[in-house]
Design a protein that fits this description.
- The chain has 229 residues and is mainly α.
- The protein folds into two domains: 64 residues; 160 residues, no CATH class.
- The chain is built from ten helices and no strands.
- It is globular, with a radius of gyration of 19 Å.
- The two termini are 28 Å apart.
- The mean pLDDT is 92.
- This is NnrU family protein.
- Its main location: membrane.
- One of its GO terms (cellular component) is membrane.
Length: 229
């Protein structure tokens, strides 16, 4: 369990204390954007591999206490939450977004705030947060709390970290974009600053998200050793 906690702390902290802070600005100023991105990607992949192996070994350990289990109600809710997560993650990954890595140039588009960005400027991270919440509902063991809890913390605080990083780098261009969007899903729509447009999101993105959700649910026992259905 110690290795899992260390791996989770490493993965979360390199994102929250390096990637989105002035530490990143100092590093890129010293070694350049390209070398920094390469080193950070290497550290992130290494952290994920460490996290995966540590989680696998911790789940079978004697100190992996179980605080709650899955019920029929939480199982059904989990499946629904995973669908919502995919409906954010898949369109989020396929929509030009200035909050995404190396996509700051999307701000120069004449109408950047379209589709999924009308709902939230961080669709991928909010999808990860909902994905983590769903898994916490049905996995009450200590190892799962560390793994999915760390992903939830990283996703939620990561939105604010990215906003701060983009504001420092892009200034007034970022402020204009942020004023038209919201971090929290549907907040800009509720406040009357945006409108919902499923057509702009693209039906192919929505159908692809449903297909990815169904494929992951079916393949879950083969990929992760646990049945989702």
């Amino acid at each position: 369990m110690t290795s899992l906690i260390a791996a989770a702390a490493f993965f979360v902290l390199i994102h929250l204390l390096v990637s989105g802070t002035r530490v990143r600005d100092a590093l890129t100023g010293r070694i350049g954007q390209g070398p920094y991105m390469g080193l950070f990607a290497l550290a992130s992949v290494g952290g994920l591999v460490w996290l995966g192996f540590a989680f696998g070994s911790s789940r079978g350990s004697a100190d992996n206490d179980v605080l709650w289990g899955m019920t029929p109600a939480t199982h059904g809710l989990q499946l629904a939450l995973q669908l919502v997560a995919m409906l954010l993650i898949v369109p989020g990954l396929t929509t030009p977004n200035p909050t995404s890595v190396r996509q700051e140039g999307a701000l120069d588009r004449p109408e950047v705030v379209r589709g999924m960005l009308r709902i939230t400027r961080h669709p991928f991270l909010w999808g990860v947060a909902i994905w983590a919440i769903g898994h916490l509902l049905v996995n009450g063991d200590a190892a799962s709390l560390v793994l999915f809890g760390s992903m939830l913390v990283l996703a939620l605080f990561g939105t604010a970290s990215i906003d701060a990083k983009r504001k420092r780098a892009l200034g007034a261009k970022w402020d204009a974009f942020a004023a038209q969007t919201s971090n929290a899903p549907f907040l800009a729509i509720a406040q009357g600053r945006q409108r919902l447009s499923l057509r702009e999101i693209g039906w192919w993105r929505i159908l692809l998200a449903v297909a990815v959700w169904a494929a992951l649910a079916w393949a879950h026992p083969y990929l992760f050793g646990v049945k989702a259905l």
